[in-house]
Amino acid sequence: MIRCLSFLIFFYLQLYTTTAQIPFALPLESVSARTLALGNTGTSYNPDGSAYSTNCALVALHKTTMLSGMYTSSFGELSKPLNNSFWVGVVVPYEPFSFSCNWVRSSSSDVRNTPSIFSSSLAEHEKHLQQTGVISFIPQMNDVITISAARQNIVKLDWGWNQYAMPIEIPVGVNVRFVRSVMNDVTTHGVAFDFGAMLKLNLRDMSFDENYPKISFGWMLKNLGGMTMNWSTTVSDYSPYQYAFGMAIEQPIKPLDSQLNILYDTKSEYTGSNHIGLEWVYRKFFAARFGVASTNVTVGTGVDLDFFMVDYGFKFSSNNVLGNVHRLTCSFRLERLL
Predict the structure, then answer these.
(1) Contact 41, 273 (CB under 8 A)
(2) Measured between alpha carbons, how far is 191 from 24 in angstroms, rounded to an integer?
(3) Which residues does 305 contact at the CB level (< 8 Å), separation at least 6?
(4) How far is CA 99 from the centre of its chain?
(5) Which label site among 26, 35, 116, 141 has the fewest CB atoms less than 10 Å from its CB?
(6) Residues 6 or more apart whose Cβ sits within 8 Å of residue 318
(7) Where do the structural domains in the chain lie, given as residue ranges?
(8) How far is CA 188 from CA 68, 89, 142, 234, 330, in A?
(9) Beta bridge mates, 268
(10) How far apart are CA 112 and CA 47, in angstroms?
(11) CATH classification (class only), 2-337
């Protein structure tokens, strides 16, 4: 059964990696300030409410109901950004399952309205732009509603000594995403599916030493089978499948009453990218974060008050024209609040 499943996954990857399509970009690679500050990592470790966006299998690790919200400004100046995005989501555990529902909106009111290259030749298009310039500015808005379901699975590995079996966590999850995009009076819709899986083991369970770390590996397949976006015109776009792999080390530092998290992700978006994140957590209360997302440096911080969490993330853009990115996230653990 495992060999058959492995062959099908391999065949699927080979099939779609050789398919050339016009890509359709979804808003926001990750949605929380924490993941932004950690270089857009999170395929193998993401304890906040945005877990569905980095690896839907991580939703299974939530043990309490969490309500989260985010706002981010992108491109241009902080006081007058060219793009605004927000996210609202909730995670509800129901062991051994967990469920999540999320809404992301990305909007811009300053998209240049120029003649379509699909209705004229490239030469005619360039000539028209030189004669008339920018005709006007039109609004653009993207909405993504995601429903997630995940299950926690625990397998006990018998090492053959002391009659002890080491528990290994293997959560799996799925996303169903409903996408809607509006540009002026033109609309498009699409549906996408994601699959995620994880393998997590605690070396402390094997060594009986509290100084040993937890190690996690995560896999995420996005847009299974691809996603076709049919506009209300004759134009259609296509978003091909994407994948991400990540690993994380959660290393306790007992003398300082803190923990160091080291994260690494590799993703297929934009012809491939590597991401690194470092997080230092002090007494489970304060966190300082640093990351590298391709060529961009990210930083951030966070405070956890048990029932309430607030995180801030900042990305230094390597492109001075586009500007930097600011992001703020707030989360409530409802069961502890009530």
Answers:
(1) no
(2) 12
(3) 285
(4) 17
(5) 116
(6) 295, 296
(7) 2-337
(8) 27, 23, 10, 11, 31
(9) none
(10) 39
(11) mainly beta
